[in-house]
Amino acid sequence: MLYYCSGSPSAKRGDRHLWTWPNSHLVAITGAGISVESGLPTVDDVVAGVSLRRLFQPRIWREQPLEAFRAFRFLAREWPQKRPNRAHLALARAEIPIITQNIDGLHRAAGSTRIIELHGNLRELKCEACEGIFGCELAWREDIPRCPTCGHILRPGFVLEGEEVRHIARAYDWVAEAKGLLVVGTELEMIPVRQLYEVAKRRNVPIAWVRDHAEDWVPHLLGQDRDADSLFCPGEV
Ligand SMILES: [Zn+2]
């Protein structure tokens, strides 16, 4: 029971009530695509002279921490100014637990309270020596911030390439109990996230995979757009 959502939902109104979709116990897995409409840069963009792709690689933090922290400060200042879009808000309104690959904090800004940030977030800095976690504001006090406890150079709180994602066991528990799964704005290329999807598939629960137009599809799937002729019929399955 997998439905690919792409293009505009209004163009697909011909197939009405194609599905019965659970009206409770949904879980969402989200990726960068959900935040596109909020105006966030993609990994191919360059911020403060550093490509985002490089910022997620451990090497730049070891070899060019000055440049890396300059880009970090740019992101930590700019991203909180971005606003959640209709997709984030619809998930928050429906109180759907969210497993996200994003570090942009937009689910939290939308009002969601049950969020697993698999890749960490921009709000924190971390010390690899003493494992302390600190607020990102330390990055404004020094060009290359140091741990207030042990003096070691800090690093960002988000997960870098090759590192383990966070809280994956809890994410499995959520998906194992879900009656339906929404996949939004991710191609599920990362293995742990792909496996979460596989768990839902094996359990044969309905899965809606939103490939684009997340800001239209998510409210539509959750019965929050005004058109009564939704493609999906909420009800227990
Ligand atoms: Zn430390």
Automatic annotation (TrEMBL):
Query: Where in the sequence is the active site?
Result: H119
Q: Which residues form the Deacetylase sirtuin-type domain?
A: 8-237
Query: Which E.C. number(s) belong to this protein?
Result: 2.3.1.286
- Keyword Metal-binding assigned to the entry: answer is yes
Keyword NAD present in the record's keywords: the answer is yes
Query: Which SUPFAM superfamilies does this one have?
Result: DHS-like NAD/FAD-binding domain
**What Gene3D superfamilies does its record include?**
SIR2/SIRT2 'Small Domain (3.30.1600.10), TPP-binding domain (3.40.50.1220)
Q: What class of enzyme is it?
A: transferase
Keywords carried by this UniProt record: Metal-binding, NAD, Transferase, Zinc
Q: Where does Zn(2+) bind?
A: C127, C130, C147, C150
Q: What is this protein called?
A: protein acetyllysine N-acetyltransferase
Phylogenetic placement of the source organism: Bacteria, Bacillati, Bacillota, Bacilli, Bacillales
